[in-house]
Amino acid sequence: MRHIGTIALACGAALAQAQPASLAPEVLFDMVSPSVWVVRTQDEAGRALALGSAVVVGPGRLITNCHVLARAKAVAVARENVTYGATLEFPDPDRDLCQLKVANFHAPAVAIAAPQTWRVGARVYAIGSPRGLETTISDGLLSGIRRNEQDQIEALQITVPISPGSSGGGLFDAQGRLVGITTMILRNAQNVNFAVPSSWIAEVPERAQAALAAKAAAAANVGASTSAQTTPQGDRVFEYRLRERQTGVSQPVVFRLDRVEGERRIFNQGERIERLDGGVESVDKPVSGEFDLAMPPGGWVSGTPEPGSAWRLDYTVRRNDLVIRMELRARAVDTTTLTVGSRQIETVRVNYSGFTHRVTGGHMINSSTYEASAWFSPTLARVVRFDARTRNQHIRIDETLELIDIRAE
Q: What pTM, to 2 d.p., does this model score?
């Protein structure tokens, strides 16, 4: 027994030596707070828009959340009585990370923790500017590491209290290393807050440049006339009616098919691009209400799902200053026939249920249960009807998008 105890003590001592010592909170704050700055934005008239936070990650470089910069025409970073003008250098809106560039700026950069050092249950500290209160520290636990179906990290869940103004601030481990960038709270859930992982920061420049190149290529493809393009014949105009069921207010939504490029269908002068299997590649203007706003990457339905099949949809979409997080389960329920004008359209009905979490302008966070149904026509390769409902004290969505006419012009 003494031998086993000796081994255990030796292993414990070795483990203690392998793990860096935790810093006292006041020591940690003194070490990293000079690297956390307030972000202030203004509109084109010079009026204040938003407050957030940013973390220094390199010489003259800071990281913040992109939603902090929404609609901004001027950006500044400030600390105590010092203010610097900043410019957006690399945006990665899909991950809500934007890199700022500041001239003649010499604040120290933080050390970034490697993902393998993250431990659920470990104490973490947030430093930011909640409600504009500069360099405020709060603590809690890393309560979860959220992953998608491909086992890729999507978010860090924390119990650390954060508030509007904390967006873009730093989440640090007990050794003062940056673990994440605080980004979102759930107002209707106690101590359920989120940060984006710090491991994404190094990828921001490359992802931003790739997105810019893809956008330029897409614009070139839309404007170019090539042999791969064909002028569609027959059905070219798909007219929907978007109706708010509570009020009865409705409006038309028209998708006009301009051309076909290989496997892509170009609608409304490139504002909407769909695939031949019914998947949605891009939507520049969400004119179809909830159908567009909360649409999963690739569309609500594509291909021909078999009744009884089920799948999971966990994703985040961003529309300017609106961030929507969806946690849904989808099931193809049955086949049914819908009438569109004088046509009988065979459809597969898919039901969705789960939760939606929404951040507006980085300031208002709403969570609610979510129910939706989509009727998908394999023949037309598109959704011909979509119903969505969710409601609590902050959100009320009760919409129907319904195809009412198909015509050649």
A: 0.58
CA dihedral sign, ordered 161, 193, 176, 101:
negative
> In this structure, what token pair is assigned to residue 279?
């998947």
Cα distance between residue 179 and residue 156, in whole Å: 9
Q: Which of 348, 398, 346, 347 is nearest to 371 (CA)?
A: 398
Q: Measured between alpha carbons, how far is residue 46 from residues 73, 76, 104, 356 in Å?
A: 8, 12, 23, 34
User: Of 169, 203, 237, which marks where a domain is finished?
Assistant: 203
Instruction: Give the pLDDT band (50/70/90) at residue 392.
Output: low
Q: Let me know: does 375 contact 338? Beta carbons within 8 Å.
A: yes
Q: What is the domain range of residue 61?
A: 20-203
Comparing CA positions, the residue from 114, 188, 196, 194 lying closest to residue 160 is: 194
In a domain, 11, yes or no: no
CA 296/CA 37 separation, integer angstroms = 34
Find the largest Cα–Cα distance for the chain: 89
Check whether residue 153 and residue 265 sit in a common domain: no
pLDDT digits (tens, 9 = 90+) for 322-353: 888 888 999 999 999 999 988 899 999 999 99
Question: Strand (E) positions, 22-128?
Answer: 36-42, 48-58, 61-64, 74-79, 82-92, 97-101, 123-128
Any idea what the CATH number is for the domain that residue 317 is in? 2.40.360
| Residues 78 and 197 reside in one and the same domain | yes
Taking only the tens place, the pLDDT of each residue in 145-172 is 988 777 888 889 999 987 767 889 999 9
User: Which pLDDT belongs to residue 167?
Assistant: 87
Residue 2 lies in a domain: no
Q: Which residue has the tokens 């200053």?
A: 321
More confident of the two residues 328 and 395: 328
